[in-house]
Design goal:
Oligomer: single chain
CATH architecture of the largest domain: 2-Layer Sandwich
Structural class: alpha+beta
CATH topology of the largest domain: Fructose-1,6-Bisphosphatase, Chain A, domain 1
CATH class of the largest domain: Alpha Beta
CATH superfamily of the largest domain: Fructose-1,6-Bisphosphatase, subunit A, domain 1
Bound molecules: adenosine-2'-monophosphate, calcium ion
Largest sheet: 7 strands, mixed
Helix content: 25-40%
Binding site for Mg(2+): 69, 89, 91-92, 218
Radius of gyration: 17 Å
EC number: 3.1.3.25
InterPro entries: IMPase, Inositol_monoP_metal-BS, Inositol_monoPase_Li-sen, Inositol_monophosphatase-like, Inositol_monophosphatase_CS
Number of helices: 7
Family: Belongs to the inositol monophosphatase superfamily.
Protein name: Inositol-1-monophosphatase
Number of strands: 14
Number of domains: 2
Strand order of the largest sheet: 3-4-5-6-7-8-9
Distance between the termini: 37 Å
Shape: globular
């Protein structure tokens, strides 16, 4: 068994445990706390799941590093090094989790030398396990998945998110992009989880996704899953994707990615 096989086996079993916590708690009363504003929520379960994953991985792999949403302080400078680093969003779609909307997931990616090697996104409510390892394809519940072959924006279904910020400038950009894109596409969808949006593109159920303001933990797993499913992940202005830039665009094809990039009103959030 290779070292990466061992990492994969351990993380997969921890992700199942994390999923069981989310499944158990989603329909129970929760302690809900706020972070940057009154729609930026966190629950005990977000913290519990992140601890479960970090404790479980660090006990097996003492030299690995972690970047996790709930263990990062707001505004903290997040540094990605060449060390094996697990990038963790314990619950992506916290707002959905709080309301009991079954579209929420654990998202975890492993980067070594800054190269994504493992990506796992698990929705334990709908039992959807998306997995990818570099060079080995992408899977939903162990069956191979592939992006659509859509090249035209006018026929595309695009996933986007409203985000959880009440910053007026950010809200204005969201509204402007809705205004600009609605007449140009087949449809726009916002389901409340950036990681699952990317998996929907990987699955071929949607053709593209973009978001401004996301963090590395929202997209580290989804990036590998989309690319291993044959899709494209780039910066929303058209250059290479930078996981730390707080910007992402993914699409089924290069043609669609470029067309979507050209149509978007760009926004450059402050970097971490
Ligand atoms: P979360 O549930 O882990 O907080 C909801 O709009 C989606 O955007 C979720 O995936 C949510 O992740 C993510 N998100 C959270 N904060 C955000 C922000 N400031 N900007 C953009 N997306 C954000
Ligand atoms: Ca959050
Ligand atoms: Ca998230
Ligand atoms: Ca989260």
């Amino acid at each position: 068994m290779s070292q990466l096989d061992a990492y994969y086996e351990v993380v997969l079993s921890l992700v199942q445990e994390a999923g069981a916590v989310i499944r158990d708690k989603i329909n129970r009363p929760k302690d809900i706390m706020t972070k940057s504003c009154d729609i930026d929520l966190v629950t005990e379960s977000d913290q519990q799941v992140e601890k479960l994953l970090i404790d479980g991985l660090s006990s097996k792999f003492a030299d690995h590093k972690f970047i996790g949403e709930e263990s990062s302080s707001p505004g903290e400078k997040i540094e990605l090094t060449d060390a094996p680093t697990w990038i963790i969003d314990p619950i992506d779609g916290t707002m959905n989790f709080v309301h009991g909307l079954p579209h929420t997931c654990v998202s975890i990616g492993l980067l070594i030398d800054k190269v994504p090697e493992i990506g796992i996104v698990y929705n334990p409510i709908l039992e959807q396990l998306f997995t990818a390892r570099r060079g080995q394809g992408a899977f939903l519940n162990n069956s191979p998945i592939h992006v659509s072959n859509q090249k035209e924006l006018s026929k595309a279904l695009i996933m986007l998110e409203m985000g959880t910020s009440k910053d007026p400038e950010k809200m204005k950009i969201v509204m402007e992009n809705l205004h600009v894109l609605t007449p140009q596409v087949h449809g726009l969808r916002a389901l409340g989880s950036a990681a699952l949006d990317m998996c929907m593109v990987a699955l071929g159920g949607a053709d593209g996704h973009f978001e401004f303001g996301i963090h590395a933990w929202d997209i580290a797993a989804g990036d590998l899953i989309v690319r291993e499913a044959g899709g494209i992940c780039i910066d929303p202005a058209g250059g290479p994707l930078d996981l730390m830039s707080r910007r992402v665009l993914c699409a089924a094809t290069t043609e669609l990615a470029q067309e979507l990039a050209k149509s978007l009103i760009q926004y450059y959030p402050e970097r971490d």
